[in-house]
Amino acid sequence: MRSLFQEVLHLFTDGKERTRYDIQEELRDVYGDFKAFKDKQMDEALHTAMSNGLIAESNYEIWVKKQDFLKYGQDGNLILNAEGKPDVKTIETKELVMYYQSDQEMIDLINSYIK
Question: Is 61 exposed, middle or buried (0-12, 13-18, 19+ CB in 10 A)?
């Protein structure tokens, strides 16, 4: 079995663009319980691969996520609106999502590294 980092690099040998989310989805069944599989550690691994010339940033998107939260009073009771329904607060967050890809020279380097 390859190390998680080697398996991440191996994914890029097909030349396709991937985000961290794509990589985690592809490897979750085998590596999902690894400490290094967490978001921050995966981002660090991708940046390491990038700084070593094994992958490159190829694209980016800004993902918008909206999440509803029920409002509770200081007494712990649910706050209701004028219609008697739970009062909901919507919070919107934005996340910069990077895409990474390897060109043929990078793929050849990865293949020589993970024989």
Answer: exposed
Task: Quote the domain boundaries for residue 26.
Answer: 4-113
CB 47 within 8 A of CB 70: no
Which two tokens mark 12? 């890029």
pTM of the model as a whole: 0.78
Tell me the per-residue pLDDT of 64-104, one tens digit each, with 9 for 90 and over: 999 999 989 899 999 998 899 998 889 999 999 999 999 99
Domain harbouring 21, CATH code? 1.10.10
Token pair for 45: 């691994």
Give me 73's structure tokens.
């009073």
Are 19 and 100 in contact by the 8 Å Cβ rule? The answer is yes
**Count of domains in the chain?**
1
Question: Phi and psi (nearest 5°) for 6?
Answer: -65, -40
